Amino acid sequence: MITVKVPLQEAERAKQELMRQGYFLSGYSVQKEGDHLYFPVKERFDSPYAFEERALEARPEQPQGLRETLKGKLPADVLGRLKTAYDQVGDIAILEIDDKFKGYDATIGKALLDTNPKLRTVLAKATGHEGAYRTQHMRLLAGEDKRVAVHKENGVSLIVDVEAVYFSARLSTERKRIMERVQPGERVLVMFSGCGPYTCTLAKNTEAEEVVGVEINPRGHELAEENSKLNELTNVKNYKGDVREIVPELGEFDRILMPLPRSAETFLDVALGASHQGTIIHFYSFLHEDDYAQADTWIQGVCDRAGRRFELLGSVKCGQQAPRVFRWCTDVKIL
Fold first, then answer.
1. CATH superfamily assigned to domain 68-146
2. In CATH, what number does 168-334 get?
3. pTM (two decimals)
4. What pLDDT score was predicted for residue 201?
5. What is the pLDDT of residue 292?
């Protein structure tokens, strides 16, 4: 059968992601060999991990997903329309539930706690991300009434406030992709750095000389400082404020990340001003799959106005926002 090969240190996160996306194949044991686990999956899919054909021992099938656990506990028409995918940040699960299903909050929340024993809190999104600080209100469904958790990924621990700071656990693979591209001695800038997921990941796992984060949200900056200390990082500097005011005072960088997909194009001139010949810029945007080249157009326009040139290194899908609308990372090199 098809299995996906995952390093032990990434196994828990990877399993939760496989379950969330519906790829995990229940009814079979997980196999351990050396420093890796082999998870049974239903099919091959786009994954950062390798696939292998392996013979796994069958075991009695148990409910694995939330939808299966809720069978018989919710009316069939409600269950059929319920979104059961969830994000996990540490021991907090975050669901997206329509207001018309609020009457089933406790049932849904308890079922998820029963499904995933590592969870202590189940929340539902009450609003979208709002304002310059990208905050999002949540309502409690079950478990402990809290909004802060310690999330682990890519060898770092991150204190995350899920209401007060924007954070996406789904971007851990993208953070790993960037991490694997950072070269020894680089000076790296992370604009819109939040609570420090990129800065901590890069500082902990690469030989970058310095990783600099700039975040306007005071709570995000506070947590970025805490996370730098938590991970014992000495090559990170965190600045609180507007990137337009702070970045021009920081000099030039070898690599610049712009993980603000809704409006990052309005800050391309700031990134270009902090670039030298050879700087790599990772520019993020939400675009329809038919329009992903719009990112190239934005970059071309800014470079033309500044009399600069660039080389397109590639574009990568790193998340889906809506049907056929994806989070794209466009990688370019300034010439």
1. Met-10+ protein-like domains (3.30.300.110)
2. 3.40.50.150
3. 0.81
4. 98
5. 84
What percentage of the chain has pLDDT greater than the value 70? 99
Q: What is the dotted CATH code of the domain comprising 2-53? A: 3.30.70.2580
Instruction: Please compute the mean of the pLDDT values over residues 51-78 and round it to a whole number.
Output: 84
Q: Supply the mean pLDDT for the chain.
A: 94
Mean local confidence (pLDDT), 255-270: 93
Query: So what's the pLDDT on residue 27?
Result: 84
- Is-contact 41 19, C-beta < 8 A? no
